[in-house]
Amino acid sequence: WEKAALSIVVVGASGDLAKKKIFPSLFALYYENMLPQNFKVYGYARSKMNDEEFRDLIAGSLTCRLNDAGDCGKKMDEFLERCFYQAGQYASEDDFAALDKRMADGESEQSCADRMFYLSIPPNIFTTVAACASKAASSKCGWTRMIVEKPFGKDSESFQELSAALYEHLREDQIYRIDHYLGKELIENLTVLRFANLVFEPLWSRQYIRNVQVIFSENFGTEGRGGYFDQYGIVRDVIQNHLLQILALFAMEQPASLDAEDIRNEKVKVLKSMGQVRLEDMVLGQYRSRTTRGTTLPGYLDDDTVPPNSITPTFAACSVFINNARWDGVPFLLKAGKALANKAAEIRVQFRHVPGNLYRNKLGLDLDKATNELVIRIQPNEGIYLKVNNKVPGLGLRIDTTRLDLTYKSKYQATLPDAYERLILDCINGDRRLFIRNDELEVAWEKFTPVLKEIEDRGVQPELYPYGSRGPVGAHYLAAKHGVRWGDLA
Ligand code: BG6
């Protein structure tokens, strides 16, 4: 692609996401020489700061790659020189006009510069900022794109309002809705795995697959983020977006091409074929404190930012079915929780038994444990492995259920890029494959809104589980109802 001039504006520049993810990703892209030659970064937020103070603020969060050739410090200085700060109110067109002027000055040598806005701000001001920025600070002759990040509403109704309000100021092709899980290496690889290998796709159906599990587990609690979290809960925070997106990519039909619209058309179709999520197919949990070896790990309600007596779930598991010819009757189990025993995210595909397995009786092979299982380990220790049955070498006949293992760190030397790096770069390149289209979200909310309403109307109490445990036992009953055993995260 042509390296044109680009002004990047991070709105909400002093926030956590900006510091932890956006600026480090921008620097990594600069370091890798992936940004247009004439780029500048503008931080925009309410607090007063000059450029130097702003540079000091972000400098602390920039990091060098492990395999840095030694010029990282120099590159960091170069990058910071291209970072500027503009203080302004989020609802002030005048303040955005001042930003516009500043950018225009910086762009003056160029005939035309593109502008990318990253709205790293709370959802209640998305539309105000989108309005002010698009009116007062759009690119005059290049493109203007805005990256927005969830939460995209809380239910179908609030989503529709947000979406309509954004459309008043932006066209669909200007809105880049991020779901950062789609930027993770192993998720991007899902379509390669499926559609570029003969051995998987023919097995990818109800005929051979018993169940599919998508599991997200964190070994820490909300830790100060409870104020935000409590308004949403784990279903909205992780399941309705990250896990559902994974499910859609996993289960969709082969798209007509790798074009963004073709891929997203297939995702929408498969989401539409999914049944409603029902309360009877759901388990909710909330972590409580736990004392081990004299240390107390705080419960959700001990977080000062969480309202006392909150019944917001920090854990949820649910089963859903996709009612189409490929997946009819195959349970998809989604599970997400905070303050559990492990930090991991995985897709586990459990295959059916081998019909008429010759080794069944002879060797006392436990058929359930010995079924093939494909595990896509999204993080940490990214990799893919396939559980297979193998004869233990030697004169006897003993069968071992072992792994064909593709662990990334032993196979590939390169450090994996952060999801945000990939997604920001895609936005700059106008590649929307990994961004969510409005209608995908519309369907995602349709599937979850009724059950979320029911949970709230009925005041469903979550099952308490100790910090650092495997979560509520209810999740095991839910799986057992479908003849499924959750895979062990490893
Ligand atoms: C975010 C959620 O979208 O994803 C957080 O709001 C969660 O609650 C985070 O911790 C997990 O992302 P990652 O990339 O660290 O797995």
Automatic annotation (TrEMBL):
EC number: 1.1.1.49
Gene Ontology MF term list: glucose-6-phosphate dehydrogenase activity; NADP binding
Superkingdom as given in the UniProt entry: Eukaryota
Class of the enzyme per the UniProt entry, highest EC level: oxidoreductase
Keyword terms, alphabetized: Carbohydrate metabolism, Glucose metabolism, NADP, Oxidoreductase
Residues spanning the membrane: none
GO biological process terms on file: glucose metabolic process; pentose-phosphate shunt, oxidative branch
Pathway(s) where this gene product acts: Carbohydrate degradation; pentose phosphate pathway; D-ribulose 5-phosphate from D-glucose 6-phosphate (oxidative stage): step 1/3
Every Glucose-6-phosphate dehydrogenase NAD-binding domain range: 9-189
Domain Glucose-6-phosphate dehydrogenase C-terminal: 192-486
Catalytic activity: D-glucose 6-phosphate + NADP(+) = 6-phospho-D-glucono-1,5-lactone + NADPH + H(+)
Functional description taken from the UniProt entry: Catalyzes the rate-limiting step of the oxidative pentose-phosphate pathway, which represents a route for the dissimilation of carbohydrates besides glycolysis.
Stated family: Belongs to the glucose-6-phosphate dehydrogenase family.
Official protein name in the record: Glucose-6-phosphate 1-dehydrogenase
Gene source species: Chlorella vulgaris
Phylogenetic lineage: Eukaryota, Viridiplantae, Chlorophyta, core chlorophytes, Trebouxiophyceae
Segment of the intact protein contained: 105 to 594 of 598
